Fold this sequence. Notes:
Layout: E1 7-12, H1 16-31, E2 35-36, E3 45-50, H2 55-68, E4 77-82, H3 83-88, H4 91-95, E5 101-103, H5 111-119, E6 124-126, E7 147-151, E8 153-154, H6 165-169, E9 173-174, H7 177-189, E10 194-198, H8 212-220, E11 227-231, H9 240-248, E12 255-257, H10 265-271, H11 277-290, E13 295-302, H12 309-322, E14 326-331, H13 349-374, E15 378-386, E16 393-397, E17 402-405, E18 415-423, E19 428-432, H14 434-442
Parallel strand pairs: 1-2, 1-3, 3-4, 4-5, 5-6, 7-10, 10-11, 12-13, 13-14, 17-19
Antiparallel strand pairs: 8-9, 15-16, 15-18, 16-17, 18-19
Helix pairs in contact: 7-8, 8-9, 12-13
Bound molecules: S-adenosyl-L-homocysteine and FE3-S4 cluster (F3S).
Amino acid sequence: MSDTMKRVYVETYGCQMNVADTELILGLLGRDGYLVTDTPADADVILVNTCAIRDNAEQRIYGRVGELKRHKRAGGVLGVVGCMAQRLGAGLLDRIPHVDLVVGPDGYRGLPELIRRAAGGERAVDVEFRSWEHYEDVPAVRTNRVSAFVTVQRGCNYRCTFCVVPMTRGAERSRNLTDVVREVEGLARGGVTEVTLLGQTVNSYHDGTHDFADLLRRVASVDGIRRLRFTSPHPNDFSHRVVDAMAEVREVCEHVHLPVQSGATRVLKRMLRRYSRESYLACVDRLRTAIPDLAVTTDIIVGFPGETEEDFLETESLVREVRFDDAFTFKYSVRDGTPAVKIKSHVPDDVAGERLERIIDTVRRIARSKNAGLVGTTHEVLVAKRARRGELLQSRTRTNKVVLIEGTLDLVGSYQHIRLTGTTGSTFTGVPAAVRRELAVIG
Length: 443
Ligand code: SAH
Ligand code: F3S
């Protein structure tokens, strides 16, 4: 029987929400009788879950879809789903002739049917927005047994002028708190102890009755949940209620990823970020006052239209002032249909490239010195998996620092008390902290 079952292979690009969406896609197809394979050559259906945030993300996907073509069988299906599918729609079918399925983030429920049509020779497209869609009844197929992403909000109602997300994921909507809690309870029963709540501006979560503070408190109270994270918040949505909940709820980890984009108020205005340099800094201050030892990471864009050298220097000085633990740094990428396309004063690519190098260097220098200062301190880590290289295990502190420790695979999923012994500047090595080791021997 099983050799007649269809096999699906999904490759995921982009943000954590795409990782979570892939788990939903696998759940939907699993319900329809598909088996999952991690070898494209074995698959009847190959899907690429895509990102549209920057042009280089899309170029990479074109390349990859071209490579996957050779694994497509007679009667098989090669589909592009996710944000790039939504952005380009049926146009993708013309641009990549061997693709026969294009489905946006709100259309996954229709995948079983659309795949059947594509397998029958039709070229199937669904890029409709469905603002009610939360895939509430879909049993996500989880690949990680320890830590889970839980999407609590889809879409985005901000209109940052550089950003394609409102065009690819539609209007913001939040799941009901009770539905989120039910899902987390199920995850916890299965052994998950760490949950990351996902949304484009996740702290603006509101289900009509409950806000993000309620959600944090309620999810953290689920039996078995030891660590609660969220990404990404927007500075304007850190109400006192949310900050209080973060400070009071033990399970909420001491890390916030708070995209700043630029340190120059002039640029922030043109980006329509709705905060100034000063109000961003004030937000970080409030968070750090409420949550001692909070790690703060960010996203930065350089070369936004009209960005002068002086503006850029303000971004550098903000990085030095906040002393971020880390940052994702990007060169501005023009996205068709976004408002920033109309801003005239284009920054030449070599200037943007050179600013990118400088900001990366500043970020690294600060991260390195902060991390060097942490060597010798003790932390609780959650062991995640085998490290990419060697015999070590990869674990994370509550502040989201990566620590490599010695140990066997049975430690995966466990919490260990460790002392940081060294750092490469970005990741750490650690050993069991002495006190706990004695306790463990006695206990
Ligand atoms: N609301 C989401 C943003 C998703 S996009 C969040 O806060 O996580 C992730 C990051 O990509 C943004 O924070 C921004 O720094 C970067 N980005 C978005 N659009 C971009 C563009 N057109 N060019 C370069 N970087 C971009
Ligand atoms: Fe994009 Fe701004 Fe929303 S960066 S996802 S439009 S908050």
